[in-house]
Amino acid sequence: MDQLSESQLDKSPKSDNKREKTKVQNRQAILEAAREVFAEVGVGAASIREIVRRTNLASGTFYNYFTSKEDVFQALLDESALSVRPELTAERLGATTIDAFIEGCFRVFFDSLVSDQAMFAVLRRNSGTLRVRMHTPQMLVAFEELEIDLERAIGQGLLPNIDTDYLSSALIGVAFEVGDRMLCRAVPDPQEAARFATALTLSGIKALPLKKAVQKEE
Description:
Largest sheet: none
Helix content: 55-70%
Radius of gyration: 21 Å
Oligomer: single chain
Structural class: mainly alpha
Number of domains: 2
């Protein structure tokens, strides 16, 4: 189905649903076209003109949804992050040991990087870009969810009472950096990457200082 220009739609109340549907279709068309272009030539060499050329949209329509090609790339990363978050949360909630908690986080994340073939091609072609803009809404939610689950694990006795703010940042940093290097390998191995990241993290946790007890004001 061809995408429609928003100006072509009737502006009566009856057309509200149609306009919203068209906006969703147009945005998705841009994302799908960008995914193809980024996989073929990389984000750096890609052009907005080429992205739009692979859709049925007018050239100016792009800027109704995105400000730049980097903005589109981040949207693709956020889309992937959104899809894997429920599985990450389920893995953490089901963990009964610290090893299972940490290993499960890394394994699910690394598996997600290679299981989505379309996005895998984009990430493989654009090594070094996984760490782009870590403070988008989706990434901030992912940080918050991880920290909440770490606090829960401490409460259950799975983890020592350590700084969850630092730990969540460290876990995400390791996941992105190791994941990026994994994608550069001839045959990416999520299980191997998860084992490495888990061993590295668990060794570090054992040497971490406990959080200082907060003194209550009298």
